[in-house]
Amino acid sequence: MPKISAPTIAAHRAQTRERILAAVAELARTQGIDEISMTDVAAGAGITRTALYNYFPDKAALLLAFAEQGTAGFVERYRAALLGGASPAERLSSFVRFQLEALAEHPHPAAAELGASLGPDAYQKLADHVEPMQRLLVEVLQNGVEEGAFDPVPAEPTARLVLAMISAQRVPIQQGQTALDEAHRLVTSFTLRALGAAEEAGGGERAARGRA
């Protein structure tokens, strides 16, 4: 059983929690979200089942924390990395890029899969947690319309459609069927055409990669 060394009890708990969520990620990849058991997670994290319950009282709480980990900090990362003075097309491209990178780096299951495992109450908590990402995309779309770069569109339903296209790339990216750059190009090009916007060669890539 792996040991966790930390200078304080709080640090030890934080390390253990990270180990637990890493175990969930590995199990989600290898056996699917519905097949994950608390016993398997405890074994993967190198702790006892009793200790696991000290962190998460049930599977729903565990999966909710797992999903939240994948979305934490997205809005801050996006705003921090986006180049100043970026065009609406570049802002949209950056949003798509960051979302796809999250799928590649943190292979979390789709919301529908989590919904089946979480139950309605926990699933609503998950929906509330990811809502800021949708609000950010709505803001990107609204700004594009106001600046005359995008055709007038209903921002909220359009944002849902864009997020659905991004989510559809999850399995192809994680299974190596589609490269991240290819998925980014596909979703961004399709969306910009639908919005009546001209693509800006290289602009989206610059904005998405503009990390100081």
From TrEMBL:
Keywords: DNA-binding, Transcription, Transcription regulation. The keyword Secreted does not apply. The keyword Repeat does not apply. One of its GO terms (molecular function) is DNA-binding transcription factor activity. Residues 37-56 bind DNA. Residues 14-74 form the HTH tetR-type domain. InterPro entries: DNA-bd_HTH_TetR-type_CS (IPR023772), Homeodomain-like_sf (IPR009057), HTH-type_TetR-like_transc_reg (IPR050109), HTH_TetR (IPR001647), KstR2_TetR_C (IPR041490), Tet_transcr_reg_TetR-rel_C_sf (IPR036271). This is AcrR family transcriptional regulator.
